[in-house]
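Example 3.2
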Amino acid sequence: MWPISTTDHASGKCNVASVKKTSGTATKKTAKKKTAKKKTAKKQTTAKKAVNKSGKRLKIRQVKSGIGSSGRVRRTLTALGLKHHQSETTVPDNVSTQGMLRKVHHLVRVVGEEG
């Protein structure tokens, strides 16, 4: 850090600024302003959770690889419990899993129902 003095010719005052040298070029160091973040109260949601009242479970199999798919699709496969090609798992038959199955319908097959 080298101090550099600059003179304001109109007022005749001398200003000293710290300069940081990086890879042969000098850049002026600026002070970061602390911004006060407003704390927002979390909204309480009264949404109902998907409940599987009937106890049915779906047996699903991954029939196509998730390679080349978007990250969102791969995370959905992981959330369904499918780790790799040709893996099988059972999931509850509720609204949330049906929505996930719609997102990855081109990669999975529903093999059967249980319960």
